[in-house]
Specification:
247 residues, globular, NAD(P)-bd_dom_sf, alpha/beta, 7-stranded parallel beta sheet, single chain, Glucose 1-dehydrogenase, oxidoreductase activity, acting on CH-OH group of donors, Rossmann fold
Length: 247
């Protein structure tokens, strides 16, 4: 396969696992990262050590100019076959009546607007309407979208609810143009995102609430993502898969 896969937020957590899994499936991987160049370079090095091909590109998906540059660099790397909209942010646990406009704007800008803009650029390259030969988009949502996350981060849950709706709508819009669009709703996964919200042990603290009584791993999410990217899922579009241990 000489197809390129862009993974936003590809240097850590679920994104890192997805970058490595996509490379194993034969994709040339563009590892998007917001700030941690060392982590992104480590992922690229690991892929190249296994005879894969990868590049790291700095991209804050809250910035349209960065997104355009990400896709330009991907174009130079090869033909785009897949986009994984993985980049996202959480914030400190808070009630809605404690949230600032700045927090809400950042949350929606990165988690929703950024994902939609990345998808826009992918559709321009993949759609048969634009002369493309098809492709796959996988959006990372969260089980929070179905739970609402009261007294934790209703704003994050709302942003992921928007991603669910966007996934269904875009899938129906471009399904006849050779593009499949699906989502993954992870449950409590053992990644660094909890630390960025001020609760590094959050996943393990809540493990007892999960029917399977354990947290998930980034690899378990990545395996579902690359399945959706593969021809094994050729008749799957407009679907959101819960990978949550039953949560």
């Amino acid at each position: 396969m000489d197809s390129v896969a862009i993974v936003t937020g590809g240097s850590r957590g679920i994104g890192r696992a997805t970058s490595l899994a996509a490379a194993k499936r034969g994709y040339k991987v563009v590892v998007g990262y917001a700030s941690n160049k060392a982590a992104a370079d480590e992922v690229v090095g690991k892929i190249e050590a296994s005879n894969g091909k990868a590049i790291a590109v700095k991209c804050d998906v809250g910035n349209e100019a960065d997104i355009l540059d990400l896709f330009r660099q991907a174009d130079a790397f090869g033909k785009l076959g897949a986009l994984v909209n993985n980049a996202g942010v959480v914030d400190a646990t808070a009630r809605v009546d404690e949230m600032s406009a700045a927090r809400l704007t950042r949350m929606m800008n990165v988690n929703v607007v950024g994902s939609i803009l990345c998808a826009r650029e992918a559709v321009k390259r993949m759609s048969s309407k634009h002369g493309g030969s098809g492709g796959v988009i996988v959006n990372l949502s969260s089980v929070a979208a179905t739970l609402g996350s009261p007294a934790q981060y209703v704003d994050y849950a709302a942003s992921k609810g928007a991603i669910d709706t966007f996934t269904v709508g875009l899938a129906r819009e471009v399904s006849a143009e050779g593009i499949r669009v699906n989502g993954i709703r992870p449950g409590l996964i053992d990644t660094e995102i909890h630390a960025s919200g001020g609760e590094p042990d959050r996943a393990h603290r809540l493990a007892h609430t999960i029917p399977m009584k354990r947290v998930g791993t980034a690899d378990e999410i990545a395996n579902a993502v690359v399945w959706l990217m593969s021809d094994e899922a050729s008749y799957v579009t407009g679907t959101i898969v819960d990978v949550s241990g039953g949560r």
